[in-house]
């Protein structure tokens, strides 16, 4: 929790929910858990608005509450991590689209937009959206199947509810209810769609929300597979994918080290597949290469039944974090600094003189670069003092070393800072060009209205001409800048994800 | 500070931060010129030493961008985007006026999942009034009993009945007023202009006092 992170969260919230919610959220972020009246008093907002803001924050699971000692009031706590996840929402939706198709994508999209929702309502909404384009009609039954498969695959979870009627509800969930689907009455859905009347569905009060952990698990696997595909080839990537897939049968998804996976199982699967003939032929070689790779992803644990392997996810992510940090050094301070950094990594503890000799860089430059690395917090110094002999001068050794978790945390902070800069820049661009963007919107609205009324092409062209060519140029420029800035936002989030994964495993 | 003395510098000695020995240990030779004192603040936007790597654009990324924008637009238009009550100043820009005209959507919540203190006033009041009403009934019953004791004649009883009804009426009115007072969350003040003509009709009937 840093001040830098707080600034980013403030921007994320105000982008989506407006300044009022931002103020309430930031109060909770800075001062920690507080009851309602404290928030009202210290933010200076009207009571009604604070209540609304808290409702919104609770709804999107950005704040949770527990009863106070006085059971009539609640204490509210801010969940900073979930706010940061809002940047990742498009990626979740995209992931589902690739894995389950368009209908499931819409289900997840609707639920993300609402925070949480009942199954019947989601299905109804998606049905309405899909029935707008006539060519691919989907029945309620199909949608229900999609929904159920999302729940059984644990992408959706039920949110806790309260059974007793108390001023501050105590939200709990029985074991097993998390992923058990409740009744969805298709007939009622059909009737309600035909008559257009709102119905009281049987699953009222059973709300479903997105399970971020499950998505992160998929994204983690994707990173690992992508790493091996890039390092070796498609076949190696496929092999790693199958290894992970078999791992889930025996192991908890977030374990540091998996239980042994018999390699013969994977061989059988590959034999049945036709997509990777190379992998089938050179199977043993591929396994060998991956085993000897510096990632240490798999290690042989036994010879029985053709050998079985353990998967070391923690070590793999430690290796990925190293790579990311090395890349950061390379881009920030160039290749000579990266060489010094790798040397320190290799030797663990090293004296400045040794760096000069081993890195094969002129003494002066080596010193300058290592000081620069130290200044930017990539290297740390450990001082060793030798007890003075008699009256002689006390001697001390300076040793450079790298504290990986600390450096990872530092890079994470750097990412937050970048995010903040990008968002500030984007809102600056928006404010600077507000007039012209507003004009464009107005023209668009008018021409849409005209088109709806069936205006002729000439009239539409007249309206379009209200924006002069120079203005059009400016608009295009703004568009390009915005797109670039938003792209950076998405890319930075990838790095944040990787580093967070490493820190979770640590 | 003891550290100062140990460095071998006298008090108020050299203005530099390191002595010669330390400088050689750091790799600065004797002949080299040290950088002069810094008299200016660093520039607000220092020049970049290196160009960042270009972003790779792909169809996938474009799709993610669209998804992101859709999501933000949806939330901003929904009731979750909370604005402060507008100040009396007229919006300057045309578009702001248009935005201000949009009906304010209110979110619907399942209140069983929220602390009751967060509910808008209307809900809280309703609960209170139920208890208040019971007290009223009891009071009224005692009043009625007293009245019955007093009344012997049938005529008087009739009168009393009438009086009772009046009391009831008054109480009902009170209740209504209490219900409405406080918030206007439930009321819809949106005027679509249809009632505009109707007002004229009312005027024809005669002035309203």
From TrEMBL, chain A:
Chief subcellular site?
nucleus
Q: Which GO terms describe its cellular component?
A: RNA polymerase III complex
Tell me a Gene Ontology molecular-function term this record carries: single-stranded DNA binding
In which domain of life is the source organism classified? Eukaryota
InterPro entries on file: POLR3C_WHD, RNA_pol_III_RPC82-rel_HTH, RNA_pol_III_Rpc82_C, RPC3, WH-like_DNA-bd_sf
* Boundaries of every RNA polymerase III subunit RPC82-related helix-turn-helix domain copy: 10-67
Q: Where in the cell?
A: Nucleus
Output the GO biological process annotations, alphabetical, semicolon-separated. Answer: DNA-templated transcription
Quaternary structure? Component of the RNA polymerase III (Pol III) complex consisting of 17 subunits.
Q: What is this protein called?
A: DNA-directed RNA polymerase III subunit RPC3
Automatic annotation (TrEMBL), chain B:
Principal subcellular localization: nucleus
- Which InterPro entries does the UniProt entry name for this protein? RNA_pol_III_Rpc31
The subcellular location is: Nucleus
List the keywords (alphabetical).
Nucleus
Query: Compositional bias (Acidic residues) at which positions?
Result: 162-183, 194-209
Disordered: annotated segments: 151-209
Domain of life, per the record? Eukaryota
Q: In Gene Ontology terms, what is a biological process of this protein?
A: transcription by RNA polymerase III
Report any Pfam family annotated for this entry: RNA_pol_3_Rpc31
Q: Which GO terms describe its cellular component?
A: RNA polymerase III complex
The UniProt family comment states: Belongs to the eukaryotic RPC7 RNA polymerase subunit family.
* Name by which UniProt lists this protein: DNA-directed RNA polymerase III subunit
């Amino acid at each position: 929790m840093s001040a830098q992170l707080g600034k980013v969260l403030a921007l994320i919230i105000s982008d989506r929910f407006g300044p009022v919610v931002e103020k309430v959220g930031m109060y909770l972020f800075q001062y920690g858990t507080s009851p309602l009246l404290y928030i009202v008093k210290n933010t200076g907002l009207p009571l009604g608005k604070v209540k609304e803001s808290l409702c919104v924050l609770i709804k999107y699971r950005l704040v949770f509450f527990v009863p106070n000692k006085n059971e009539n009031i609640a204490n509210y706590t801010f969940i900073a991590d979930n706010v940061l996840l809002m940047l990742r929402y498009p990626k979740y939706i995209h992931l589902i689209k690739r894995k389950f198709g368009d209908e499931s994508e819409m289900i997840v999209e609707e639920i993300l937009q609402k925070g949480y929702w009942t199954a019947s309502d989601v299905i109804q909404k998606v049905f309405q959206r899909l029935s707008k384009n006539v060519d691919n009609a989907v029945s309620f039954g199909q949608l229900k199947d999609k929904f159920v498969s999302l729940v059984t695959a644990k992408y959706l979870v039920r949110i806790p509810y309260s059974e007793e009627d108390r001023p501050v509800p105590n939200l709990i969930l029985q074991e097993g209810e998390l992923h058990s689907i409740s009744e969805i009455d298709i007939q009622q859905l059909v009737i309600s769609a035909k008559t257009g009347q709102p119905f009281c569905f049987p699953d009222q009060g059973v709300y479903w929300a997105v399970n971020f952990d499950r998505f992160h698990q998929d994204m983690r696997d994707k990173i690992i597979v992508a790493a091996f595909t890039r390092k070796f080839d498609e076949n190696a990537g496929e092999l790693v994918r199958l290894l992970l897939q078999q791992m889930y049968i025996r192991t908890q998804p977030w374990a540091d080290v998996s239980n042994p996976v018999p390699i013969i199982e994977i061989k059988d699967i590959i034999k049945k597949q036709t997509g990777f003939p190379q992998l089938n032929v050179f199977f043993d070689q591929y396994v060998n290469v991956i085993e000897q790779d510096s990632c240490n992803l798999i290690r042989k644990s036994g010879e029985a039944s053709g050998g079985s392997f353990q998967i070391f996810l923690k070590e793999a992510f430690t290796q990925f974090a190293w790579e990311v940090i090395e890349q950061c050094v390379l881009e920030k301070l160039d290749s000579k600094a990266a060489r010094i950094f790798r040397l320190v990594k290799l030797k663990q503890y090293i004296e400045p003189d040794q760096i000069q000799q081993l890195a094969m860089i002129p003494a002066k430059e080596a010193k300058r670069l290592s000081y620069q690395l130290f200044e930017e917090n990539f290297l740390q110094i450990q001082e060793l003092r030798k007890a003075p002999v008699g009256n002689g001068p006390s001697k001390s050794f300076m040793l450079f070393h790298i504290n990986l978790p600390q450096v990872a945390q530092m890079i994470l902070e750097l990412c937050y800072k970048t995010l903040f800069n990008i968002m500030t820049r984007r809102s600056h661009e928006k404010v600077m060009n507000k007039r012209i963007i507003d004009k464009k919107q107005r023209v668009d609205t008018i021409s849409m209205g005209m088109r709806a009324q069936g205006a002729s092409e000439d009239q539409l062209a007249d309206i379009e001409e209200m924006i002069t060519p120079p203005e059009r140029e400016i608009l295009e420029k703004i568009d390009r800048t915005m797109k670039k800035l938003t792209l950076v936002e998405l890319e930075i989030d990838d790095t944040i994800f990787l580093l967070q994964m490493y820190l979770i495993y640590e | 500070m003891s550290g100062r003395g140990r460095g071998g510098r006298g008090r108020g000695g050299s203005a530099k931060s390191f002595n010669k020995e330390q400088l050689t240990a750091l790799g600065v030779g004797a002949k080299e010129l040290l950088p002069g004192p810094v008299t200016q603040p660093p520039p607000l936007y220092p020049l970049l030493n290196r160009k960042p790597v270009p972003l790779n654009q792909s169809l996938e990324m474009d799709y993610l961008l669209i998804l992101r924008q859709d999501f933000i637009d949806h939330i901003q238009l929904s009731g979750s985007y909370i604005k402060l009550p507008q100040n009396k100043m007229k919006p300057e820009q045309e578009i702001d006026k248009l935005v201000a005209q949009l009906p304010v959507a209110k979110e619907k919540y399942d209140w069983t999942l929220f602390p009751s203190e967060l509910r808008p006033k209307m809900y809280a009041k309703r609960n209170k009034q139920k208890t208040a009403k019971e007290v009223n009934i009891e009071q009224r019953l005692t009043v009625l009993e007293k009245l019955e004791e007093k009344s012997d004649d049938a005529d008087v009883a009739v009168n009393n009945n009438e009086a009772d009804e009046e009391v009831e009426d008054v109480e009902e009115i009170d209740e209504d007023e209490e219900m409405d007072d406080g918030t206007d969350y439930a009321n819809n003040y949106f005027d679509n202009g249809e009632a505009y003509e109707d007002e004229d009709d009312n005027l024809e009937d005669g002035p309203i006092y």
